[in-house]
Design brief:
Layout lengths: L1 E2 L2 H20 L4 H21 L9 E7 L9 E5 L5 E6 L4 E3 L2 E8 L9 E5 L6 H13 L6
Antiparallel strand pairs: 1-2, 2-3, 3-4, 4-6, 5-6, 6-7
Helix pairs in contact: 1-2
């Protein structure tokens, strides 16, 4: 089960506050100051909504990573939301695996070639420690992982 990350919310707020302080400190006309500050605040609201802190639809979800039977095919991923919505697809190249950050990229089934892949940002506080470790190993080492 993937939960919303308090660390991600804190980082988002800190980055946006830093941006507001930079806009405040430079000498721009009042109208431009106002527009930039409004844009930064809207960006903060959108970022918190995307991270699951504003709105109930993305607060938690269940992620299941399944190895494909074909060695050349990418791993399968299923994401189940509490609302009953399900996204199934395949893990695509470009997923980033670091000790304290995982960016998981997947292409939903039925997506056209021009449609963008979906990305999920996972921090250690959003997943159980053992599940986070296994996910990192699976994404980094693929089929050679002893999971």
């Amino acid at each position: 089960m993937v939960r919303r990350s308090p660390l991600l919310a804190l980082l988002l707020v800190a980055i946006h506050l830093l941006s507001l302080s930079v806009v405040w400190s430079i000498g721009l006309p009042f109208a431009l100051h106002l527009v930039l500050k409004l844009a930064i605040l809207l960006s903060l609201l959108w970022s918190l909504h995307s991270a699951g802190w504003l709105g109930a639809s993305l607060q938690t979800f269940r992620l299941r990573l399944t190895p494909s039977r074909d060695n050349d095919a990418p791993d399968r991923i299923d994401i189940d939301y509490p609302s009953g919505r399900r996204i199934s697809g395949s893990v695509v190249e470009g997923s980033i695996v670091l000790p304290h950050l995982v960016i998981l990229r997947c292409r939903p089934d039925g997506a056209r070639w021009w449609q963008a892949s979906r990305n999920w940002l996972l921090l250690p506080d959003s997943v159980a420690p053992d599940d986070y470790r296994r996910l990192r190993i699976r994404l980094r080492w693929g089929r050679a992982a002893p999971v």
